[in-house]
């Protein structure tokens, strides 16, 4: 098993008729992901790469039996798109869109409180269970099925880490980009909880960055609850204070959220810290002590 | 997006948050008039002393000589002339300082107590939060660092807003009773309305003062707005003061490139914010100093790569450049083509170490190799590429 997505995941694409939505629908289909429907208001009845388009999420769910959605809708409409997915009770919502107002995300989190619905993102590359399903924009071919999970706040840095793992002969169970925004649908903590219970996952690579307290919260959880080995790299050691480093969430505010603080917390939880972004694959390989990962324990 | 104090106070005033009487001026003549107008309002027929506060996007003004007092229109004019247009260097600006865009003339307040009040978002718990402390008027970060218990945090419910319970706890944390506690309640409600209706990321009042006559006043005002929400606040977006932004960062942001200047001599061109930070880190680990953070964005075509190079090389300290691209959707052969065209067009002379990885990487590397450019060095591994660029920057320094 993996977490959140597998071969049985039936995927909707919201914003499927847009440039990014259409392009990535094709890439997800190439990866053999079951993309069963798309949603664009007013474009119902058409098709994109053979995928039927519906006017509303509810219609799409009723007709296709979808159980997940990937949102590519532009930032100013993404809030409504996410609410529509929540109202249709889709259990997994992945928001790729960048630039959603923070208070809209706060409102979405409020709506999700106490609900079993899981939202990943926003401003994220999505998630992939190698060889089974890809719900996002990551290049599929760099992945390989296996037993190392990857959780990250970044995009291309995650691809680099995954690539290093694959090169080192280590396949992945599930790789998830949680997003680069200040308020996120899913924290590292929640996903670590799922990975700790997942039979396929033997180790976790966590890629954090400056700003916020995601990594500190993760450290507290790992210390209290996790038995599987965790490896971590935190980006942004060189970042100046009060400067936003590309991601809306990556800013050292009030002297908090530095690499040093995060590393100390994680190290204190028994996590193996990786100093160089080029050493992710080799460090995990050396620690796990064998070149190839088994798929099932 | 940051606002100036005088802009923030205008929002406060509209929202019903009490502030001292004041007027902003953008020229010495305006300052002179502002003094006369204020004097007439505050103490007609009697001597009047006001503060003249430099307006720039950084704190620490007082210690840097950015807050003066004037007891005549003539003096107000002279102070304004001295401050306006000048670059003021404070503990928060960096060595080059920031230009003073305006001055705020304000009545002086006799403060009995200086408090701290702020509203922001608790990121992890995804809810608005009030921060309150009795240690106002000081560097709040230093207070929190030395005495974490000196600041209290109260979550605000998105739907219910500021509840009576929140008001009671905040007033009690600030040591307010009776009428000032009631005033604090009104202020918190106004603060929340302003926070939500303007999509703020931070509203900070430091100090919030209790005057000798038991009035609650926002003596300073700091507002940061959520850039992502500016599309629905045209009137607030218009308050942006570009003179406060780093010229290269501003130029970059206009064309979709995230650029932040750093202090070193190795330029960096990277796709993705996380990888860009990691690239800065590995240069430092290899003994070098990055000159910048640069995320070229998702659609790096020839034009965008050319733009990125022109921004990196505008910093004349740059002695070598590291290009680190992980091609996902963006193909390495497109990047190679962009690199060749951009460096030719700009006649780039400094050595460029190129590390390409990902989609169509062989084709990309082949194109770079066949171009036979002496200053274009293609290296597969990131660690080796970083080491090489550090050597190159060092020998040419």
Protein model, in words:
The complex is a heterodimer of chains A (297) and B (397). In chain A, strands 3-4-2-1-5-6-7 form a seven-stranded mixed sheet, sandwiched between helices. Chain A is an alpha/beta fold. Chain A is built from nine helices and 14 strands. By secondary structure, chain B is an alpha+beta fold. Chain B has 13 helices and 18 strands. Chain B has helices at residues 5-15, 28-42, 73-83, 140-146, 164-173, 178-197, 234-237, 247-254, 273-285, 302-313, 332-345, 361-370, 382-395; strands spanning 22-25, 50-55, 67-70, 87-88, 98-99, 102-107, 111-122, 127-133, 151-155, 200-211, 216-218, 222-225, 258-261, 266-270, 292-295, 320-327, 352-358, 376-378. In chain B, α5 crosses α6 (178-197) and α10 crosses α11 (332-345). The mean pLDDT of chain B is 93. The interface between A and B is large, with 64 and 55 residues.
| Gap between N and C termini of chain A | 11 Å
Low-confidence stretches of chain A: 291-297
User: Which structural category do the helix and sheet elements of chain B fall into?
Assistant: alpha+beta
Number of beta-strand segments of chain A? 14
Q: Report the β-strand fraction of chain A as a percent range.
A: 15-25%
Task: Please state the CA-atom Rg of chain B, rounded to the nearest Å.
Answer: 26 Å
- Give the overall shape of chain A, derived from the CA principal axes: globular
Count of helical stretches of chain A = 9
How would you characterize the largest beta sheet of chain B? 6 strands, antiparallel
N-to-C series of helices and strands of chain A: EHEEEHEHEHEEEEHEHEHEHEH
The average pLDDT of chain B is 93
Q: Give, in spatial order, the strands making up the sheet with the most strands of chain A.
A: 3-4-2-1-5-6-7
Biggest sheet of chain A: strands, sense, closure?
7 strands, mixed
Which segments of chain B are poorly predicted (pLDDT under 50) over 5 or more consecutive residues? none
Helix content of chain A: 25-40%
Task: State the largest interface.
Answer: A-B, 64 and 55 residues
Structural class of chain A: alpha/beta
């Amino acid at each position: 098993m993996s977490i959140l997505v597998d071969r049985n995941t039936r995927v909707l694409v919201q914003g499927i008729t847009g440039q990014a939505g259409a392009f990535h629908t094709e890439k997800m289909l190439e990866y053999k992901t079951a993309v069963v429907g798309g949603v664009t208001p007013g474009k119902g009845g058409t098709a994109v790469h053979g995928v039927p388009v519906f006017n509303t999420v509810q219609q799409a769910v009723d007709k296709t039996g979808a159980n997940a959605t990937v949102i590519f809708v532009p930032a100013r409409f993404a809030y409504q798109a996410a609410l529509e997915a929540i109202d249709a009770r889709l259990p997994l919502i992945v928001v790729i869109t960048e630039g959603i107002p923070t208070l809209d995300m706060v409102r979405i989190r409020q709506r999700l409180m106490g609900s079993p619905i899981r939202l990943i993102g926003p401003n994220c590359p999505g998630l992939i269970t190698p060889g089974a399903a890809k719900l996002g924009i990551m290049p599929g071919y760099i992945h390989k099925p296996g037993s190392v999970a990857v959780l990250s706040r970044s995009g291309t840095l995650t691809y680099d880490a995954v690539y290093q793992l694959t090169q080192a002969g280590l396949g992945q169970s599930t790789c998830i980009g949680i997003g680069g925004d200040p308020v996120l649908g899913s924290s590292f903590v929640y996903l670590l909880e799922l990975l700790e219970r997942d039979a396929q996952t033997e180790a976790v690579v966590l890629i954090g960055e400056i700003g916020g307290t995601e990594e500190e919260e993760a450290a507290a959880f790992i210390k209290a609850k996790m038995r599987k080995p965790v490896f971590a790299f935190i980006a942004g050691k060189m970042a100046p204070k009060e400067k936003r480093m590309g991601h809306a969430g990556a800013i050292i505010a009030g002297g908090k959220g530095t690499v040093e603080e995060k590393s100390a917390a994680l190290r204190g939880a028994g996590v193996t810290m990786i100093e160089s972004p080029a050493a992710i694959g080799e460090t995990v390989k050396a620690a796990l002590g064998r070149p190839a990962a088994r798929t099932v324990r | 997006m940051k606002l100036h104090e005088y802009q923030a106070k205008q929002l406060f005033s509209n929202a019903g948050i009490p502030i001292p009487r004041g007027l902003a001026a953008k020229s010495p003549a305006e300052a002179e008039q502002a003094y006369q107008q204020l004097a007439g309002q505050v103490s007609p027929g009697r001597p009047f002393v006001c503060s003249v506060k430099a307006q720039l996007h950084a704190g620490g003004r007082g210690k840097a000589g950015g807050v003066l007092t004037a007891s005549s229109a003539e003096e107000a004019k002279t102070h304004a002339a001295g401050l306006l247009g000048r670059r003021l260097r404070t503990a928060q600006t960096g060595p080059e300082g920031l230009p003073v865009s305006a001055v705020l003339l304000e009545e002086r307040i006799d403060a009995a107590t200086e408090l701290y009040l702020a509203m922001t978002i608790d990121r992890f718990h995804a809810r608005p939060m009030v921060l309150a402390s009795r240690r106002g008027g000081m560097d709040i970060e230093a207070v929190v660092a030395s005495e974490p218990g000196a600041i209290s945090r109260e979550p605000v419910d998105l739907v219910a807003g500021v509840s009576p319970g929140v008001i009671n706890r905040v007033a009690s944390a600030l040591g307010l009773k009776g009428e000032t506690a009631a005033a604090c309640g009104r202020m918190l409600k106004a603060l929340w309305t302003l926070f939500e209706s303007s999509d703020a990321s931070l509203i900070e009042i430091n100090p919030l003062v209790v005057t000798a006559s038991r009035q609650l006043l926002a003596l300073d005002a700091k507002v940061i707005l959520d850039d992502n929400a500016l599309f629905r606040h045209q009137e607030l977006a218009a308050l942006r003061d570009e003179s406060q932004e780093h010229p290269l960062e501003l130029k970059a942001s206009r064309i979709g490139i995230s650029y932040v200047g750093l202090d070193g001599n190795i330029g960096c061109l990277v796709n993705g914010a996380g990888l860009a930070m990691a690239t800065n880190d590995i240069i430092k680990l290899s003994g070098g100093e990055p000159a910048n953070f640069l995320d070229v964005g998702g659609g790096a075509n020839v034009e965008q790569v050319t733009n990125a190079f022109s921004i990196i090389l505008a910093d004349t300290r740059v002695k070598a450049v590291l290009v680190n691209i992980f091609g996902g959707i963006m193909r390495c052969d497109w990047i190679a083509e962009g690199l060749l065209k951009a460096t030719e067009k700009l006649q780039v002379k400094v050595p460029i170490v190129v590390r390409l990885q990902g989609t169509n990487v062989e084709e990309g590397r082949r194109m770079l190799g066949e171009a036979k450019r002496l200053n274009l060095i293609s290296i597969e591994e990131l660690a080796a590429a970083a080491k090489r660029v550090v050597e190159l920057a060092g020998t040419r320094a």
